[in-house]
Amino acid sequence: MKTIVKNIGGKNIIAKAEEPLSPQVEKLFYLLTTVENKLVDGFSIQVGWSIFILSEREDGYHIIVPDYTKNPFKDTTEDLTIALWVQLEQVHCLRQLNIEGEMIKFSDKIVIAKNVLQLDEIYLQRSSDCDKDDSGWYIGPVNEAEETGELEAIYAYELLKIRPSIIQVLALPYEYLAVFEKDNIKAILNDNDVDIWNGITN
What is the domain count for the chain? Predict the structure, then answer.
């Protein structure tokens, strides 16, 4: 774990994350410099998937995030690693495809076919026809014979424990579809049903 301290607007801002994510911490600091007059105890900012909150301590303002290993609706942590990793994975996927994404929050709902996340071959499809706090994502089996007709709803963050490889595609735009075989992306279809993943070297 690396601790990085930066003075922004005369205040010490403190962030902790695993060493490889230091560039993401620097980007977060840069974002905070654009709102430096708002940096007070309890200040929060939504950056893609996660919300980042300032917590004032004796040595400065610590950046904390929802704790995705516990209950992120009430538990927080100073370890920014998971929050920054998710952001990095999703941005990397969009950059490979050279497209703009559609934000998804950790607290957004995802509709899934019952027990689908235990299957090797699944697909995810995102519909714009969804309610607030709903991601628009549906996860179902590629093989229609495995379709039970029963649906469940989970929070997006729950995928971190069940099937973290899916996290990378969740910022894809509406009307896109992604196909997975185990933890590997097999195809990503755009809103014209064209596979834009084929040919990309991972």
Answer: 2
